[in-house]
User: What shape does this take?
Amino acid sequence: MAGRIKGQLLKGTTTLLVLSVLREGELYGYEIAQRIRDKSGGAFIPSEGSLYPALHSLEAAGALDASWRESDRGPRRRYYKITKGGLGMLEEHATEWAVFSQGMARAVGGADR
Amino acid sequence: MTALLGYVVVLGGLLVAAVWLVRRSERRLGAGPDAHAAPTQLGTDVTAEITPYLDRMTGELALPAADVAEVRAELADHLQDSIASLEAEGLDRDSAIREALGRLGPAAELGRQLRMAHQSTRRLLAGVGGGVFAGGGGFVLGYLGGIMLALFAALALALATPPLAAVGLRLPDITSGDHSGNAVNSIFLAVATAIAAGAATRYAVRTSASLSRRTPRSVAAFWAVGGGLGFGWWAIFGMRGAQSWPSVAIELCVPVVAAVAAFARIERSMPHVGRWALVVGLVAVVGSGLVFAVAGSVSSSVINTIGQQPDLHLDSVAPAAPTAWLPEDANFGGGWGSDWSSGGTQVSLELDPNLGAPAIAAILANWREVRFEAWHALPMDMPGLLAGIEEAWHALPMDMPGLLAGIDTRYSSPIEVQPASFSGTSFEAVFHLERFRDSGSWWIVLTAVGPDGHRYRLESGMGGDARFNGSAWDWLTAPQ
Assistant: This one.
């Protein structure tokens, strides 16, 4: 896929991506990966191997709550829900990302001129 | 009363909070809900294919059992979803399994990443704090359990003694010469402390493992060293009382018990402390507080002084001072006194307040090296009614001395000698008879060296009882 972001660029963005999709509602691990891919039009496909450590780190930091319950499709799943602290963390990361991306756009645009 | 209320509130609150904390921890350290242990079924069963991967991953986790079960179940569910989705996209089963596992990456690396995600510094600090707290609660519970156990053991021994005596088997009398039962109390308390130290370390290990998201065995060494040093120091150097060889031996075992309890079968769940056990524990806390408060107020009101007896064998210490070297009106009629509040036995012999300054000066001029000598004394045999009264006294939780029959002539030297300092109108000295293992009954005499260079007895003295009071270390290093 020509528009897909490479792994190195994705590093450090997993937290922001996870928090941003969970802002819309509770999801379980596999759904989170799917939702990130769908929302980014396939540009972001987070490594599933880094997704779960990120989810568990966020839970340990109090940004997420996790609970086991029945999924829409029947079987029990571990659902993650963003907390108040998680919303604050999302806002902080989003601001950092905006500054970073604008800076990158200016720098890369400047190099083109 | 306020202090007692504070004692009950603090210990009771600690007990309830610690039990709650431990119960919570036990749920995490347990196997976890069965529903989480196995992957849920979705579409075709791929359990057999993904199990080796999950085994390698969980081998790196080193988390409490419930966390391991949860992580395993979550990833199994994820793999089931992923494989089903890939099969729906057209991949055959084997390819779908390979692709799904490949997306998760190397199992060992995933396990390490997940372990690091769980074992944060914040949780480590929570584990240490929670471990200390739960250890405190475990100590209180263990202490109460230990006292109950020691009481049951004493009861069993008391019941077993007559039948054993009937068949000619006599148990060693550890209460010999211990009329007030303090040495037995020391054994009880040493047993309770050993059990409490073990319970505290175990509670600390289990709770800190749960809160810090580690396996109990991985934190056991920390608590074994901490518990062994802390409780060991306290048991050997800090716990003071009327010691005996059994109590000292038990106290020396306390650090070992604390350390072993941190490791021995530590993966096994703690016994469930139910509501009734908690109620009994709280009642025991309140009850023991009341007993200590009452016993303390009774024993502190007792004065330990004894009157003189007609034949005290005092000449075995030193001959009486010739009256020629004492002023005509010199006597020590002011009387003896003793004070235990200084940590030892402070004795004072006050001169007759009617003596004038010239008479006192004459005494001090004629006599040198004035000193108090503490000698072993003989308890008095009291037939009939007196013996019954003495026995009744000793049954009370009071510090009541026996009556004394004077110097025990089997001893050729005093227990302790202290120079007498003259202050105002009295000679004074502080004895530490409680630091001797076998001082028992004592008699203190005032002696001095006269103008002829021989030592004489200036006054007949006073007697009392002393029992050893110190730590296990004091006992081991005490003079005989």
